[in-house]
Write a structure and sequence with these properties.
Membrane topology: Multi-pass membrane protein
Keywords: Cell membrane, Membrane, Sugar transport, Transmembrane, Transmembrane helix, Transport
Number of domains: 2
CATH topology of the largest domain: MetI-like fold
CATH architecture of the largest domain: Orthogonal Bundle
Number of helices: 15
Main location: membrane
Helix content: over 70%
Pfam families: BPD_transp_1
Oligomer: single chain
Distance between the termini: 63 Å
Protein name: Multiple sugar transport system permease protein
Structural class: mainly alpha
Largest sheet: none
Shape: globular
CATH superfamily of the largest domain: MetI-like
Order of helices and strands: HHHHHHHHHHHHHHH
Radius of gyration: 28 Å
Length: 299
């Protein structure tokens, strides 16, 4: 009788001990995850903070050894001197805005149409064509730099914005893939109902697919903006006249023959970084939702 009474108590004690151990393990894992996130955040944030503090240092503090993280006094005049100095950053800004805006329009037009075709239209060998398009994503763009330069040089497009803008009107495989994945999440019944009502494919795309695909479109527009706003390699290849330079090329011109004014360079870099940060924080929820849905959905 005593043994039968003691056994349930022993099992309860063992169960309580196991539950306590499991809770302790969960707390350790949670603490480790938080520590890992803190370290990762510091790795990404510290360079940005160093950039901010450098933009507020004096010339002597920039050259000090060992380096100091915080300046003795804040020199906000570095922003005005850097922007309105010897380099025409107002022209660089307008050039970057023009190239970025045209490229974003080109990406939107050239990627929406094939994405809708791959997602909703059934054509012979469409799967093969989609696979070939995805295969182009594995080709490094450095391989195509020389052939593209030869072609644009023969067309007489060197030292103009055409080599930077025109290719954007011929589609980007990554953006087409993301849009196609999102389009497949829209119920087919909605599209069939529109077809029964006599709507054309372009009308279905314009009135149904695009309004329902705002998160995905916002994602590719943000990708397009950041990519073209920070474009340096192709800009330095095709642009020769200083008045046509973009902001990344203007920042590269801060490197002087005898000395580099890092404080003014960092100040201008922060100014040009603001549009990217503002755009991301405004469209953060839409961007994350679009990336999530295009990543986990699709057939």
């Amino acid at each position: 009788m005593l043994l039968e009474t003691a056994r349930p108590a022993t099992r309860r004690a063992h169960h309580d001990l196991t539950a306590a151990q499991a809770e302790r393990i969960r707390r350790i894992r949670r603490t480790g995850a938080y520590l890992l996130l803190i370290v990762a955040t510091a790795v990404f944030v510290l360079p940005f903070l160093w950039m901010v503090t450098t933009s507020l240092k004096s010339d002597a503090e920039n050259l000090a050894f060992p380096p100091q993280f915080l300046p003795d006094s804040f020199h906000f005049e570095n922003y005005a001197k850097g922007w309105s100095g010897n380099l025409p950053f107002n022209s660089f800004l307008l050039n970057s805005v023009l190239i970025t805006a045209l490229s974003m329009v080109g990406n939107l037009i050239s990627c929406v149409l094939p994405a809708y075709a791959f997602a909703r239209l059934r054509a012979r060998a469409s799967g093969v064509m989609f696979s070939l398009m995805l295969a182009t994503m594995m080709i490094p763009r450095e391989i195509t730099l020389v052939p593209k330069y030869i072609m644009f040089a023969q067309l007489g497009w060197v030292d103009s914005y055409l080599p930077l803008v025109v290719p954007e009107f011929f589609g980007v495989a990554l953006y087409i893939f993301l849009l196609r994945q999102f389009f497949t999440t829209i119920p087919q019944e909605v599209i069939d109902a529109a077809r029964i009502d006599g709507a054309s494919e372009l009308r279905i795309l314009w009135r149904i697919m695009l309004p329902l695909s705002k998160p995905a479109i916002a994602s590719i527009m943000l990708f397009s903006f950041v990519g073209n706003w920070n474009q340096y390699l192709e800009s330095v290849i095709y642009l020769r006249t200083t008045e046509k330079f973009t902001i990344p090329l203007g920042l590269a011109m801060f490197s002087g023959q005898y000395a580099t004014q890092y404080n003014q360079m960092m100040a201008v870099a922060l100014i040009t970084l603001m549009p990217v940060l503002i755009l991301f924080f405004i469209a953060q929820k839409t961007f994350i939702r679009g990336v999530t849905l295009t990543g986990i959905a699709g057939r």
